[in-house]
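Hey team,

Filing this mostly as a record. A colleague (T.K.) asked me to run one chain through the structure pipeline before their review meeting, and I want the input and output archived in the tracker in case anyone asks later how it was produced. No errors, nothing strange. Just documentation.

Input sequence:
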Amino acid sequence: MTSILVFGSINMDIVTACERHPRVGETVLGNSVAFYPGGKGANQAIAAARCAGKSFLLGGVGGDEFGRQMVAYLRDNDVDTKGVAIDRGTSTGVAIITVDAHGDNAIVVTRGANARAKASAHLTGAIKGAVIALAQLESPIGEITAFFTRVKANGGTTILNPSPFQALPQELLQNTSIAILNAHEFSELTGGPAADQPQEIIARLESAELPLPHCVVTLGPEGFVLAEQSRAPIHIRGHKAEALDTTGAGDCFAGWFAAELAAGRSLAEAARRANAAAAISVTRAGAGPSMPTKAEVENFLQR
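Output structure:
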């Protein structure tokens, strides 16, 4: 089976539940606080491992207790952490997350060791044969570019989740096979007005020159729009789910999608199955701990 190699952030998530998000200058009372393993790279690696049985993660943690806990948690969830460096000169990344009564979240991330993570230090031993490589933008963009360039040169497939969005270097775009992005990120990438409805996304895809061969635009409960090279964009509807916490749903989609591609699924089928996994994840608290098992996704799809 094709290996799944994730380069990305590793954070401890500090999650506070509240009735609503505070306005600027306002203090609101929280109902609870919890600590969950997170970080977009870690979340995606765990989702991929839940689907495929194993994934590989490149990244960094600080020489602190959060770092120790994160590495142990990843190993316990079938993620190979030989490519996770311990940077004793800084702290492990932290995400401060508020979740309102509707399950919607607001997040502030302090990158810590993620800002100094280097994929290049581990590439020689990591890339062997066919590889599905997945990255986000909480790690240094120069390192992501070098990572994707190396994978593509070796015949692998690269998947970019451009979150949080920033300007993308041409070299990174040229070495990206597939993008997975939400409606906001899609609008940023295409440079047009905000579009968050399926038909708006499709119309934009049909009229704009997308700088990537393929993309999946995730739309939460509305499902996703898939644009494949030389094919008309299609909309696949989402699933009804009672959302408890949407933190990590996009990461669940991306990691699961990568694993399904590694198993030989088509882009459309991989995205359909990833959409089901993400629907399950929003019914649970936390990011990493919310990732479903393969059996749960299979049962969900059968229903």
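Quick notes for T.K.: The mean pLDDT is 91. The chain is about 35% helix and 25% strand.
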